[in-house]
């Protein structure tokens, strides 16, 4: 499993994601980014997420 803490990229956000693989994390993050941060996922954001993925 992988985990990602949105707060590692967006200071102050407490949302955490857990999924079996990076693709599923990215799908969840994309939805969260759109709904809660009003941003679309682009290449730099994907890189930021991947840089902060942790093994769970
Ligand atoms: Zn967030």
Q: How would you describe this structure to a colleague?
A:
Pfam families: DUF1059. With 56 residues, the chain is an alpha+beta fold. It has a domain at 20-55. The protein is 45% helix and 18% strand. It has helices spanning 22-37, 43-51; strands spanning 2-5, 16-19, 54-55. It has a 3-stranded antiparallel sheet with strand order 2-1-3, with helices on one face. The longest helix has 16 residues, at 22-37. The termini are close together. The mean pLDDT is 96. The structure holds zinc ion. Zinc ion (ZN) binds next to helix 1.
Summarize the model shown.
This protein has two helices and three strands, in the order ββααβ. The protein is of the alpha+beta class and 56 residues long.
Topology:
Layout: E1 2-5, E2 16-19, H1 22-37, H2 43-51, E3 54-55
Antiparallel strand pairs: 1-2, 1-3
Bound molecules: zinc ion.
Pfam families: DUF1059 (PF06348)
Organism: Kineococcus aurantiacus
Protein name: Putative small metal-binding protein
């Amino acid at each position: 499993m992988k985990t990602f803490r949105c707060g590692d990229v967006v200071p102050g956000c407490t949302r955490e994601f857990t999924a079996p693989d990076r693709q599923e994390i990215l799908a969840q993050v994309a939805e969260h980014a759109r709904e809660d941060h009003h941003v679309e996922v682009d290449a730099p954001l994907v890189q930021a997420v991947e840089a902060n993925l942790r093994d769970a």
